[in-house]
Amino acid sequence: MALLWALAVLSLLPLLDAQSPECANLMTAAPISNATMDWLSGKWFYIGSAFRNAEYNESARAIQAAFFYFEPRHAEDKCMAREYQTIADKCVYNCSYINVYRQNGTLSKFETDREHFADLLLSNHFRTFMLAASWNGTKNVGLSFSADKPEVTQEQKKEFLDVIKCIGIQESEIIYTDEKKDACGPLQKQHEEERKKETEGS
Ligand SMILES: *[C@@H]1O[C@H](CO)[C@@H](O)[C@H](O)[C@H]1NC(C)=O
Ligand SMILES: *[C@@H]1O[C@H](CO)[C@@H](O)[C@H](O)[C@H]1NC(C)=O
Ligand SMILES: *[C@@H]1O[C@H](CO)[C@@H](O)[C@H](O)[C@H]1NC(C)=O
Ligand SMILES: *[C@@H]1O[C@H](CO)[C@@H](O)[C@H](O)[C@H]1NC(C)=O
Ligand SMILES: *[C@@H]1O[C@H](CO)[C@@H](O)[C@H](O)[C@H]1NC(C)=O
């Protein structure tokens, strides 16, 4: 009996709501240190996202697949991002600087003539991270999910789904990418070759 009761209580736990301490815990961005920036360094795959903000929502729906490289610039509080996005079956390559606001755990990027902010939420268990947008109030909440591999495990995905619930978005509203649609492989290989030649030549 006691065990059954315990199970019943446990099965209630996943019902998170935005006001719960669990949610506050999951959604608090930690300050960004040099170690955090080192942790972020390398190749990442964009797995999926959900955004209430119409502009972000639209661009999320346009991205079929994406991967990117982060290169930290500790001294400048910046991170260089080289992004390979597949949009309408074509590869779109962009290189840009991400600003790092260390104190409040926020990253930002200038795009379409304004600064876009997102809170960085690192996984404690996996090489995955989330970026939480909350620009101009709750009607603009949103969350993206990235991992060091193009496919994630159920445990990794659960961390994302928990925060999705916290911000009041339905699972059915999440837009996932599909690595099979990636059209950037050849360009990325070409860039790699060029880099190799540069380092050999210098
Ligand atoms: C994104 O836009 C689509 C189409 O307008 C809408 O159905 C969906 O609910 C939006 N997603 C979120 C998270 O608001
Ligand atoms: C972070 O790294 C930069 C550049 O290497 C260095 O100047 C700075 O002192 C470091 N900050 C801390 C807190 O270690
Ligand atoms: C890529 O960069 C160009 C030029 O800065 C910009 O116009 C375009 O919107 C960017 N595309 C994406 C997908 O970020
Ligand atoms: C984070 O900190 C920077 C500088 O300290 C500030 O300009 C920015 O508005 C802050 N962002 C948020 C989301 O609090
Ligand atoms: C923020 O939201 C309010 C209403 O909720 C709107 O009036 C205002 O234009 C928005 N700000 C921006 C910069 O879009």
From TrEMBL:
Cystines in this chain: C23-C166, C91-C184
Record SUPFAM superfamilies: Lipocalins
UniProt key word Disulfide bond: yes
Keyword field contains Nucleus: no
Recorded GO CC terms: extracellular space
PANTHER family: ALPHA-1-ACID GLYCOPROTEIN (PTHR11967), ALPHA-1-ACID GLYCOPROTEIN 1 (PTHR11967:SF2)
Family, similarity comment: Belongs to the calycin superfamily. Lipocalin family.
Name the UniProt record assigns to this protein: Alpha-1-acid glycoprotein
Organism expressing this protein natively: Capra hircus (Goat)
